[in-house]
Design brief:
Blueprint (H helix, E strand, L loop, with lengths): L1 E7 L2 E8 L2 E7 L5 E9 L4 E2 L8 E4 L4 H11 L11 E3 L5 E2 L5 E3 L7 E2 L2 E7 L15 E8 L2 E2 H6 L13 E8 L8 E6 L2 E7 L7 H11 L7 E3 L14 E6 L3 E9 L17
Length: 275
């Protein structure tokens, strides 16, 4: 099933994507719900954020190639982590599919993307084991972890480099039937492929992170865990459109615009709706 939050005719609600149609739902996927008779063409609705997580977890340096590239840039020897480690991102940074990432006018040119699988939690859990960890996974969506690298290098934390307003696109929906073993992540900038990797080729996969997290924290329905990325990003410029496709899930698309610059120079964002 593909669950999305959408707006049509001035009303925002949950819905199910079936083919090129959206079926409006009363209730929500984490509780009681029922289909309604209201349907809309997918191409005619405004796709909203699939959800606002209670807690927004993230994983860093979880792919070997990305780990090596980060070490090379820092002039250090790659150090493969010995256990899963987790961080956080801020809700204020979240935006939906087809919404613009706004680059602050005073930011440098070092604006990068990271295409990431986002795991959506479906029920309250703690002290998970390898055997039952996946029972709490409701489904998957897609994240774009945008960074301003000069701020990241200058600061002791990631407070602005990764959490500025609009720096965390997520969507377009939640896919409940996707197969981790078959997923491939494909990134395109202005229609040209810039990165491709097997989504599940992580140093630590979904299960180890769920087990480690729930030693300390309770996970709640609607929490999300972004699982990191592989490869490197080019410097993104005003008007660039970044698409992150994860096979079996969909495609998240967002345009990057620099604050204060004319919108007339934007590249067209296209008309496809999440794919």
């Amino acid at each position: 099933m593909r669950w999305l939050t959408f707006t049509a005719s001035g009303k925002t609600s949950w819905g199910l994507v079936e083919g090129d149609q959206v079926i409006a739902v009363e209730g929500d996927p984490f509780g009681e719900w029922r289909r309604t008779s209201r349907t809309h063409p997918l191409s005619k609705v405004k796709i909203e954020l699939p959800l606002i997580p209670r807690t927004f977890y993230c994983v860093g340096l979880n792919y070997l190639k990305h780990l090596k590239e980060a070490a090379d840039k820092a002039g250090t020897v790659p150090a493969v982590p010995e256990r899963p480690e987790i961080g956080y991102r801020a809700q204020n940074a979240l935006i939906a599919h087809d919404e613009d990432v706004v680059i602050p006018s005073f930011a440098t040119e070092k604006i990068h993307y990271e295409g990431e699988l986002a795991v959506v939690i479906g029920k309250k859990v703690k002290h998970l084991t390898e055997q039952n960890a996946m029972d709490c996974v409701f489904g998957y969506t897609i994240g774009n972890d945008v960074s301003e690298r000069s701020w990241q290098k200058a600061d002791r934390s990631l407070w602005r480099s990764k959490n500025a307003d609009t720096f965390k696109p997520m969507g377009p929906w939640i896919e409940t039937e996707a197969d981790l073993a078959r997923m491939e992540t494909i990134v395109r900038v202005n229609g040209r492929e810039t990165n491709r990797f097997h989504t599940n080729d992580m140093i630590f996969g979904v299960v180890p992170f769920l087990v480690e997290l729930t030693k300390y924290f309770t996970l709640w329905p609607g929490d999300v865990i972004w699982m990191g990325t592989d490869g490197a990003s080019p410097d993104i410029k005003h008007g660039d459109v970044v698409e992150i496709e994860i096979t079996g899930v969909g495609t998240l698309r967002n345009r990057f615009v620099r604050e204060g610059q004319s919108i007339s120079s934007r590249r067209p964002i296209g008309s496809s709706r999440g794919r």
